[in-house]
Amino acid sequence: MRHGNYPRLWRKYAGLQRLGGRGDWLAMDHDDPEEMFLGATDLTYISTAYYYYSTMIVAQTARILGNQAAYILALYMGLLPDNAVEQNADALEAKLLSNNGYLNTGFLGTAYICQVLSAAGKDEAAYRLLFNEGMPSWLYGVNLGATTVWERWNSLNPDGSISSEGMNSFNHYAYGSVMEWMYRYMAGINPAAESPGFKKAVLTPRPNFRLKSVEASLNSPAGIYTVGWHMETDKTIRLRVQVPFDCEARLILPFSNGREELLRAGSYEFHYKAIKPLGELPEIDGPFNRLKECIPVRPLLDKYFAGWQNIPRFHGQDSLARLCEIPYLHLNIDNIDLLKKDVEKLYS
After folding, report:
1. Tell me: the pLDDT tens digits for 322-339?
2. Which of 66, 121, 336, 340 ranks highest by number of CB atoms within 10 Å?
3. pLDDT value at position 203?
4. What sign has the CA pseudo-torsion 135, 137, 140, 141?
5. Which residue, of 158, 179, 200, is where some domain finishes?
6. pLDDT on residue 43
């Protein structure tokens, strides 16, 4: 479209963005009488300057506001200069930790929170959010019997009663947006940017010790891609991949020091030792809920604390040492040091 002689579409000049407009309107410094109203200052320069200025305002606003959603949107939408991304991702993680590891976001912030954490290399924080069980969390509703995604985090109270009769749908998919993170990061299925329609894919699965196995299939326009991973021990992983006909995928094997495979159509399996533990060293002195999530540690809990599966959920925030002080649980506090030694050996 054109307005007079002024372009109204985005144009690219030498890597900068130009949005047509009136420029330095009615300046007196243009030599061309047909464009004298625009002024002599280059439109590309003006557009780029204002674009940068607006972006920096938004980025500074995120830092000033300092809430989770502000950081999430700034990170996901690319509003931050490169040298500020890590700092803001750290700040977001700190906000989560200050909230006992829980999110407090609504529809917009929740849609991207796990994605920006994983994009910043903070998979552990993203997985922790997914497996939280208190309110607000995805598993809060599951533990209350939910088979759909609710409009509110607390559509039901802990006793099962309805929290509010107004604006309280029990089939409202907004928070189900976490599924995109599961496909893109947990399973690692992504389209290659240079090849639309999934003719080429980039597969970057990211296992975590909270899950023993994952399998995801995506029915793309080019066919079905499948990625599955299975943790056999703390340092061993089995990976299964299927690439559809007439397609190819670049697979980046997790915990392999950057090993890549170019895969044509077909089915593949990889079985190898990970170069590092598939998760952070568990905190034995932290909340028991966190410790029991660690699949590789569970056989050790069986060894030293038989019956740990029967510990009531309301004790989940207590440490193992505190649980050992509760008489009816019958746990031996002397076994904590033995557990610590075996866990350190497992993760060394």
Report:
1. 999 999 999 999 999 999
2. 336
3. 98
4. positive
5. 179
6. 79
Partner residues linked to 162 by β-bridges: 156
Q: Are residues 220 and 126 in the same domain?
A: no
| Lowest-confidence region among 23-27, 50-54, 65-69, 103-107 | 23-27
Kindly give, in sequence order, each residue whose CB lies less than 8 Å from that of residue 42, ignoring residues fewer than 6 positions away.
Answer: none
Give the residue numbers spanning the domain of 300: 288-346
Residue 248 burial (CB < 10 Å; 0-12/13-18/19+)? Answer: middle
Burial of residue 1, with CB atoms counted within 10 A of its CB: 0-12 exposed, 13-18 middle, 19 or more buried: exposed
Provide φ and ψ at 247, rounded to 5°. -130, 170
Last residue of a domain, one of 179, 202, 237: 179
Written as six digits, the tokens of 306 are: 């038989």
Higher pLDDT, 257 or 187: 187
Going by C-alpha positions, the residue among 18, 27, 20 that lies closest to residue 4 is: 20
Is 234 inside a domain boundary? Answer: yes
Tokens encoding 308 = 């740990």
**What does the radius of gyration of the chain's CA atoms come to, in whole angstroms?**
26
The three-class DSSP label of residue 165 is coil
